[in-house]
Specification:
single chain; about 325 residues; mainly alpha; 4-stranded mixed beta sheet
Amino acid sequence: MSLSGFFQSYPGLYMTQAFIHSLVASIVAEIAIKAWNVRDPAVRQKVFLIPVVVPVFLFPLFLLLGPERGSTYFRLGTIFESGRWLGLETLGTHPVMGILVVIFTITSLVFLFQELIPILRHSSESGNPENTVRKVDFPGNPAAGAAMETLPVLPAVFVVEDDDFLIYSTTGKNAAVYVSSSLVSTLTEEELRSAVAHEISHVVRNRHPMLVGAYLLRALMFFNPIVLMEFRRAAQEEEKVCDEFAVSFTRNRRGLVQALRKLYLPPEEPPQPRGRRTRKTASEIEERSHRLNIESRISRLESGEDHDSGTRWLVPAAVTVAAVLINYYIV
């Protein structure tokens, strides 16, 4: 099948329209967040997930409800007609089609190697009991036991013999929280309780059907770079949501702030002399981005911002309606 033939087929039309629909939804979402000054991470997360969810359904829904969208009369009144751009020909090639193929291919490879393969590897390792043979149940560690005893919700918590600072959770039937012995000996009782409460929040929220459904829909849009970007922004907000969830357990914002500082904010290295400055590597850029995200979480916890319950569903609903109406006139 030729490139032109693919983009005129249903899969090609679906991928193109999904890309455009998610782009429009992303722009609408960003405008809404800034216009309403949305600060609540739970609301922001819902808004960021709209560009992930709506492109999955809009193209087939529009075909079902509005068959006239394919007519010449309707196309004359549209906001944007993708077919005109896709059909542009230069030197015997279709440059817009070629650009989209490159974008979809790169995004698919990123999804494969950065998300799908690590998830499959993690799932296989989680089911292998040999990988956790050096764990010690937390009641055997007095410091960990004292920190955990006041938490109202408690899955299995294990102290793992490790010299690095580690804390993570696993989900599913055998949900558990794992903390390294080095971290237990470094954090205070309040800090350790707050850090474990954050991981427990991930375990509890992982059972939320909205989050599970959102990831499955994100996987269907594996080729879509806008969906990739917005889903990662939603994942960052999930950390802030779990921060608030943890504080509701412990009633101690300062304990979580101090735990985050010790876990993730080592002192920054002094900048290199101007004459020796080198180009930043991808790992350095990622590390800097991670640090900024942690600093944002700390800033929010220290500010003690309140949730605005009035916008919890108003803003996501308004963004959804606007995205659907605008995208209806994009073909």
